[in-house]
Amino acid sequence: MRIGAGNQEREVEKKEIGRRNDKLEKMRKELGEIGGSGHFWGNDKMISFAGVRDEMRGKELKKVIGLLAAGEKKINLKFWWSQNSEVAEAGWTIKFKTAFEDYGGDGLYFYLWISNKEGDAKFKATAQEIVGSTGEEKNRRELQSEKDGTRQRIKYENVAGYAFVRFNITIL
Q1: Cα 70–75–81 angle (5° rounding)?
Q2: Structural domains of the chain, count
Q3: What is the residue range of 103's domain?
Q4: Is the separation of the CB atoms in 154 and 144 below 8 Å?
Q5: What's the CA gap between 132 and 128, in Å, rounded?
């Protein structure tokens, strides 16, 4: 073994970690809280009522998954009350199922699953129902994911029947 080879390997590793951190920081800035980076506690009414965002769909969810794949631990998601979504990208999957029976739900709970290829996507979430026209929040709950097969899942009781469901999530 050459003298100094270990130092070179450490330097290469440091540079790689720096590149990953730079990429994550760039993604955070690009998306911001409104796009799903970090937690969002602002007024979340609909754009048509002078709000800052509507629900997240495939394209937006793929960007949030990109954050997770880059190492982000805090994200936020916003879904339409009747929406069912499943998006997989970069070894991560996010799936949301509505509570409403007319759209395939069980009539009681919204479900959110998060998984990754390593099988360690345990998370906690603050869930809230949001009025689309005013941003009023109701039914705030602190939830902890539970193992559901190879995924982690939370069940969030539908209480208010508001237009949106928002999750502020921390990957553990």
Answers
A1: 130
A2: 1
A3: 5-171
A4: yes
A5: 12
